[in-house]
Specification:
This is Integral membrane protein. This protein is an all-alpha fold. The chain has helices spanning 2-10, 15-39, 58-75, 81-100, 102-107, 118-135, 153-179, 183-189, 193-201, 209-214, 220-248, 253-261, 273-281, and strands spanning 50-51, 54-55. It starts with a helix and ends with a helix.
Amino acid sequence: MVELFTHRIVETGRLPLFSFFAAFIVMFVLTRVNVRLIRSDVRWWFKNVKAGDLHIHHVVFGVVLMLVGGVASLAVPDTYSGFHVVVAIVFGMGSALVLDEFALILHLSDVYWTEKGRASVDAVFVAIAVTGLLLLGIRPLGFEGIRPDPGGEENHTVLVAIYLLSLIANLALAVVTLLKGKIWTGLLGLFVPLILIIGAVRLARPGSPWARWRYVPGSRKARRAQWHEERFRRPLIKGKIWVQEFIAGRHDLDLRHRRKAVPEVRGVRSQTPDQVRQTHDGT
């Protein structure tokens, strides 16, 4: 195991990337454990960080850590490999804190414990998948750089032309795949071009831009797309939601607890906190 790590990670110069990857995962797990304990109002655990009445979200600390790690990595010469490992860890920790509240940044609203907050987990999954593929040595769109060809300038020009045509073709396939509503297929296809071909050829998801533009409502393609969505895609989505809730917690759990704690008012069995407030205010 040590020899494999040395050969695949250290000798290939991927140790800073591995450090970022490990720090990212560890910090994300610790952050989720922390926020779930805070949400459960455990007496022996920490509380939310506040400055007066202002709740300071952990994305703020993440931005600071990312800035420190990023600037430090640019300021220190490449010969200091050990230091680059340290700043990669700092940058990974900050990235985990930021992406854990990606939904808050996206919606510019505190949606952490709502259904929209699942977007944060999706963003973390994407970051882990992309970083993991890079650690395996897989480059997006086969990018490895173009080295001078000993066969001469003419051969080098041909190789450059072939590479650019391949790059344009793969990008076009990626755009088509994303327009068909296949986000994960498009992202993974950037590393494995064969997946892009499959994603671009197959039917689009219902409601995707491609389906709205090219599938006439009630047509054979529209019906087939809906059938594929219900037959294959829905079970996968349910599985993904289960994983998200296992990691991030149920987004509606807190609301249920609040409803159970609300007393009955004027014979009304189940009222939301807003309804109870309105009743007491006489509105």
